[in-house]
C-alpha cells in the first residue's frame, strides 16, 4: 500500500486494532460530514426507515399454481418483482 495511509495498513487485509494512537486520530461524524447529510442522519432513529422514494407496494397473499411459482423462482432473485412486472404488463394490455 502506498500513500499517507501506509502506517494504518494491515498485512492481513483486516481492520486494524483500535489503539490509543489511532483513536486519537478519529473525528466525529459532525466534523466529517456535510451539514445537511449529518442533519438527515441525526434526525433518524436507529432502525427507522427514510421517506419512500416510490409509492409503497401493498402486501398481498396470492395463491399460484406450483408450475407458475416454480417458473418465476427458477429465474433467481427478484422473482416477485418479475411477477409484478408481468401482471402490470398484462393489465396495460387489457386496458389498452
What value does the average pLDDT take?
83
> Largest beta sheet, briefly?
none
Q: What's the total count of β strands?
A: 0
Summarize the amount of helix as a percent range: 40-55%
What Rg, in angstroms, do the CA atoms define?
24 Å
Decide which structural class fits the backbone. mainly alpha
Shape descriptor: elongated
Order of helices and strands: HHHHH
Low-confidence stretches: none
Please count the helical segments.
5
Termini distance?
60 Å
Beta-strand share of residues: under 5%
What does this entry look like structurally?
The protein has 96 residues and is mainly alpha-helical. 46% of the residues lie in helices and 0% in strands. It has helices at 20-25, 29-32, 35-43, 66-73, 79-95. The mean pLDDT is 83.
Give the structure's gist in a few sentences.
The protein is mostly helical. The chain contains five helices and no strands. The model has no long low-confidence stretch (mean pLDDT 83).
Q: Main attributes?
A:
single chain, 96 residues, mainly alpha, 5 helices, 46% helix, 0% strand
Amino acid at each position: 500500500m502506498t500513500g499517507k495511509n501506509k502506517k494504518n495498513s494491515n498485512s492481513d487485509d483486516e481492520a486494524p486494532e483500535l489503539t490509543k494512537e489511532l483513536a486519537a486520530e478519529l473525528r466525529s461524524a459532525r466534523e466529517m460530514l456535510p451539514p445537511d447529510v449529518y442533519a438527515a442522519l441525526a434526525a433518524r432513529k436507529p432502525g427507522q426507515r427514510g421517506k419512500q422514494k416510490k409509492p409503497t407496494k401493498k402486501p398481498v397473499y396470492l395463491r399460484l399454481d406450483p408450475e407458475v411459482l416454480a417458473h418465476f423462482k427458477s429465474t433467481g432473485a427478484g422473482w416477485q418483482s418479475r411477477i409484478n412486472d408481468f401482471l402490470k404488463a398484462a393489465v396495460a394490455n387489457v386496458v389498452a
